[in-house]
Amino acid sequence: MSALLPPAVVAGSALTLQAFNRALDRLPRRYGPCGRYSNTDKHKWRNAATSLLNSFVLSVLVLSCFYWYPELWDDMANYSMQLGEITYTALFGYYMYDFYDMVIYNKFSAIWPVLGHHLTGMLLLGMLHAYKQAMSVILVALLCEISAVFLHLRQLLLMHGVPRQSILFRVVKVVNLATFVIFRLIPIVFSFYCTLTYDLAAILAVITRLCNFALIVVNVVLFRRVVYSDFIRRDNNNKNEDEAFIMDR
């Protein structure tokens, strides 16, 4: 892999996402969100739409890695390929974009956990690039981007005022729950198991294990929130706006 390609992909990813974010302001109002997301909190809508685009692109990249390189299952600790590195560097660019966007529009006290997550993620991706190990293990964890597509879609539907009783929202919430289990919880647990059993560089082994364990905890909490909000709570007919940002609470 050319030494210039990783920084080029990082910069291209971050700048493209930022340009897409700003371009959303040019959409006619009839295509935009409703309520406070069309005014004071419009930056949250732009960020959710941009995150949806990023999750879709990363999902395609991750699935392409598994389709074109099935041999990665044979040596998940040491196998590496250029498409995998492109996937990581594109994710690194997203972290940079989202870090900047959140710092600009939010108070530090409200976003420090997300900022910590992004900094940890960038550190991990940098170490993966340096050690050339555990690429396949983390690619498994990145299957969660498929689930993220439906999480962000759910979020955007609520921001646009789509009723929870509508057929569209009901379909999305069921698919969201299914993909959460299949493409988020199971892959992350499997990835954590791999970090415990494979022979990795000492510092990389420690960091990947800690990151995967933290991901398991965070996603179990998120899963509980989604299940409670969409399938258990009954007094949510007028809670669309309040629940739209469930992913960040």
UniProtKB/TrEMBL annotation:
<feature type="transmembrane region" description="Helical">
    <location>
        <begin position="109"/>
        <end position="128"/>
    </location>
</feature>
<feature type="transmembrane region" description="Helical">
    <location>
        <begin position="174"/>
        <end position="194"/>
    </location>
</feature>
<keyword id="KW-0812">Transmembrane</keyword>
<keyword id="KW-0472">Membrane</keyword>
<feature type="transmembrane region" description="Helical">
    <location>
        <begin position="76"/>
        <end position="97"/>
    </location>
</feature>
<keyword id="KW-1133">Transmembrane helix</keyword>
<dbReference type="GO" id="GO:0007009">
    <property type="term" value="P:plasma membrane organization"/>
</dbReference>
<dbReference type="GO" id="GO:0005886">
    <property type="term" value="C:plasma membrane"/>
</dbReference>
<dbReference type="InterPro" id="IPR050846">
    <property type="entry name" value="TLCD"/>
</dbReference>
<feature type="transmembrane region" description="Helical">
    <location>
        <begin position="200"/>
        <end position="223"/>
    </location>
</feature>
<feature type="transmembrane region" description="Helical">
    <location>
        <begin position="52"/>
        <end position="70"/>
    </location>
</feature>
<dbReference type="InterPro" id="IPR006634">
    <property type="entry name" value="TLC-dom"/>
</dbReference>
<dbReference type="GO" id="GO:0055091">
    <property type="term" value="P:phospholipid homeostasis"/>
</dbReference>
<feature type="transmembrane region" description="Helical">
    <location>
        <begin position="134"/>
        <end position="153"/>
    </location>
</feature>
<dbReference type="Pfam" id="PF03798">
    <property type="entry name" value="TRAM_LAG1_CLN8"/>
</dbReference>
<dbReference type="GO" id="GO:0097035">
    <property type="term" value="P:regulation of membrane lipid distribution"/>
</dbReference>
<feature type="domain" description="TLC">
    <location>
        <begin position="40"/>
        <end position="235"/>
    </location>
</feature>
<dbReference type="GO" id="GO:0071709">
    <property type="term" value="P:membrane assembly"/>
</dbReference>
<protein>
    <recommendedName>
        <fullName>TLC domain-containing protein</fullName>
    </recommendedName>
</protein>
